[in-house]
Amino acid sequence: MFPKKVSIVEVGPRDGLQNEKLALTAAQKINLIELLSDTGLERIEAGSFVSPKWVPQMANSDEVFKALDAQAGVQYSALTPNLKGLETAIEAGVREVAVFGAASESFSQKNINCSISESLKRFEAVFSMAKENDIKVRGYVSCVMGCPYEGEISPEAVAEVSKSLIDMGCYEVSLGDTIGVGTPLKTRLLLESVLKEITIDKLAVHFHDTYGQALVNLYTALEYGVSTIDSAVAGLGGCPYAKGASGNVATEDVLYMLDGMGVSTGVDMKALLRASSYISDILGRAPISKAANALLAK
């Protein structure tokens, strides 16, 4: 039984742009986010408060958030992996943040130089400050169906990290197929394990389309009742850990599928195509979205 309504979390301005070679100006990002806000999207990840040394594409996130006009019904969020990032986000007026853990010990060590348990321990201060400032916290779990260093990842490991994030105070956990190696069977096994620890209303999915499997994996997740999907306009982004990775599943492709299934999203395709064309023109390429390319060609 599919959900009647799905909430699309637009991650292009953060997870997408941080993996693009071209660093956008604050004005360009603000224009993109405003175009996305006009589509009916209610949740937009607009930036990240990390060291510009490591992610230069996100260096102007404070400028972006300070300039964004709060639109009725639209929640702008930011990734804040540590206390310093959260403090800067609060100064910029952010009201929802995200933290990320990994289901792979190797990925955790290479990505943030600590074990999974150590990474979760570091978040304690972040959750404490967020609670003091009445800020919602979302959690990401990376490498849920495969790791570039370890290969297969146990669904039980994903369930354990996901439960830890919920127990620490996340209102929702998004399961990330970081290198896009998932298949429908892997998705089923993953969800059956995670749903033993977390209720469906606290679960989201974040699938990359490296092997062209994202939509079928999302369809599988929908069959289990998952009603929150992360995606990126124009298929923005990539993955530095997977050769040939095409990045996030495109919001246009997700919307076309959901519209065709009669699942409500509140998102207008024509408005979304305007945002897709805008960012694609800046990047100097066609959208990495089959639906966008087909619809824009009409």
TrEMBL record:
The keyword Chloroplast does not apply. InterPro entries: Aldolase_TIM, HMGL, PYR_CT. SUPFAM superfamilies: Aldolase. Keywords: Lyase, Metal-binding. Transmembrane segments: none annotated. Residues 6-273 form the Pyruvate carboxyltransferase domain. GO terms for molecular function: hydroxymethylglutaryl-CoA lyase activity. Its EC number is 4.1.3.4. The keyword Lyase applies. Belongs to the HMG-CoA lyase family. This is Hydroxymethylglutaryl-CoA lyase. It comes from Alteromonas gracilis.
